[in-house]
From TrEMBL:
It comes from the Eukaryota. GO terms for molecular function: hydrolase activity; metal ion binding. InterPro entries: MBL_Glyoxalase_II, Metallo-B-lactamas, RibonucZ/Hydroxyglut_hydro. This is PksB protein. Gene3D superfamilies: Ribonuclease Z/Hydroxyacylglutathione hydrolase-like (3.60.15.10). The keyword Endoplasmic reticulum does not apply. Its cofactor is Zn(2+). The gene is pksB. PANTHER family: HYDROXYACYLGLUTATHIONE HYDROLASE GLOC. Residues 6-198 form the Metallo-beta-lactamase domain. Keywords: Hydrolase, Metal-binding, Zinc. The keyword NAD does not apply. The lineage of its organism: Eukaryota, Sar, Alveolata, Dinophyceae, Suessiales. Signal peptide: none annotated. It comes from Symbiodinium necroappetens. SUPFAM superfamilies: Metallo-hydrolase/oxidoreductase.
């Protein structure tokens, strides 16, 4: 996940080809600060692979160790951190609890504890503000799938898949906890885009709304846990402070600059920005332009809610 303001990035489940990931980052001129691991299975974090999967051979798969060796921080769910540290021979793993956040410039990743597939499985939620425009990062030779993610991006590891969920018949897994975790995820905004750790469908991503409507495992989860615990509040919006100012913008969401009359202002008309706050005493909104770090202070008349079809609403994953 890339913060385009300062071109820093946090990887999720970097394994198999960590070298390739760093090459890609170099190509895009993006600095990888570290990697979050959704759970301890080797196909997500690398390290010592159980001989059962290798025909008895000893195999050490590229993953968290290579990220740490490159100077990156390793984050993982509290219940899986120790196992990942051992399996990947790491010096340190930052153990994350439910509701913890990883700040990355303008980008904040929220950690949601979603046990079931493993005891410490987590999902990573990139808050809407973190979804900076893909177009400013540059291009690569890789094939890309693009989708809008106005309500945020949820990376679900082996918890929620398109139309199904991760296995719960493995050592350390717990079907009941999986049901509870799926029910909990289903309470998120229906427009949240879900990126699963494996894909068994035609499209490699889905939405919370689609899974709530069609995913039998989610539906079963909700029947067992009809009122699951809410997901932690967004750290960017804060509790209760989601709406601001006379135009009721959501903090951290996009707005469009309009109707500026001055010569300098006219160049800004039609541009998208992020709403930072409403300055009560001044009757002005503080906003930040995409791709820039300075704050602009504008009258409510000079901001409107953008239509949902702008190119800057694309999220990169
Ligand atoms: Zn797994
Ligand atoms: Zn997996």
């Amino acid at each position: 996940v890339v913060n385009t303001l300062d071109r820093s990035a946090i990887a999720v489940d970097a394994a198999w080809d960590v070298e390739g990931l760093y090459k890609l980052a170099a190509e895009l001129e993006v600095t990888i600060r570290g990697c979050v691991y959704t759970h301890y299975h080797f196909d997500h974090c690398g390290g010592d692979v159980h001989p059962m999967f290798t025909g008895g051979q000893k195999v050490f798969l590229s993953g968290a160790k290579e990220v740490e060796d490159a100077g990156g921080t390793i984050w993982a769910g509290q219940g899986d951190a120790e196992q990942i540290q051992k399996q990947c021979s790491l010096k340190e793993v930052v153990a994350m609890r439910d509701g913890d956040v990883i700040p990355c410039g303008d980008l904040v990743l929220h950690i949601l504890r979603t046990p079931g597939h493993t005891p410490g499985s987590i999902c990573v939620f990139a808050a809407p503000r973190g979804l900076s425009p893909r177009s400013t990062i540059g291009s690569t030779g890789l094939k890309e799938a693009r989708t809008k993610a106005e309500a945020g991006l949820l990376i679900t590891g082996d918890t929620l898949f398109v139309g199904s969920c991760g296995r719960t018949d493995l050592p350390g897994s717990d079907p009941r906890e999986m049901m509870s975790s799926l029910a909990r995820l289903s309470t998120m905004d229906p427009a949240v885009v879900v990126c699963p750790g494996h894909n068994y469908a035609t499209e490699p991503f889905t939405t919370i709304g689609a899974e709530r409507a069609q995913n039998d495992m989610v539906i079963m989860g909700l029947s067992h846990f009809p009122s699951p615990p809410p997901v932690p509040p967004c750290a960017m919006c804060g509790e209760g402070g989601q709406i601001c100012g006379p135009k009721k913008f959501r903090k951290g969401r996009k707005a469009r600059i309009v109707n500026l009359a001055s010569e300098a202002g006219q160049a800004l008309n039609g541009q998208d920005c992020v709403v930072e706050s409403y300055m009560d005493g001044k009757d002005r909104y503080a906003v930040r332009l995409f791709g820039q770090s300075g704050i602009k202070v504008l009258k409510p008349d000079n901001l409107e809610k953008p239509k949902m079809d702008g190119p800057s609403s694309e999220a990169a994953s």
